What does this fold into?
Amino acid sequence: MLHNVKSHFYAYISKLRWLQRWGMKRNVINENVMEHSWEVATIAHVLALVKNRKFGGSVDVNAVVVAALYHDCSEVITGDMPSPIKYHSPEITRAYKAIEHQADHELLSLLPAELQDDFRRVLVEAEIPPEYHRIIKAADTICAYLKCKAEVQAGNPEFRQAEQDVRGRLDKIDAPEVKYFLDTFAPSYGLTLDELLK
It folds into this structure.
């Protein structure tokens, strides 16, 4: 039976809307962590579906989507660390991963005890199956690529090198569902609303 206890969990993670991404770059199009998480979840959804339907996968699509939706929740504690800093050196990467791990557990502890086991599988990165994690990471990288393309298309040269770098990372992902997304869905992102409606 679930007990009625007070929890700050959802009020806390609702603050993700105030965390801006790409903080070290001049942005034409602002993006917060909450909207980014939704976009990653929707793209992870289709990647998982395509993996299952076209490429012989057998992942739990719903589990992937839920984990993707929560994938950056720890940033409500850590803030959004820009990738060039996070991956600047192995020591910084290890230290930041330890901080993220601690933040995952602190968020988990905000939940009522009877829900913690369920949330552990979507909040704590180390508890997410590696195959699901790869799909979520691929969706996250696709989102970064689409963001960079949108900024460059909007006339912002600040993202030109990042677009090339992220595309290079995407091209190294050995997952046919990623290529499928890039070929099938990504080209439309450059169209205006009027062009999409035609």
Summary: The radius of gyration is 18 Å. Residues 11-186 form a domain with the Hypothetical protein af1432 fold (CATH 1.10.3210.10). Residues 130-153 form the longest helix (24 residues). The chain has eleven helices and no strands.
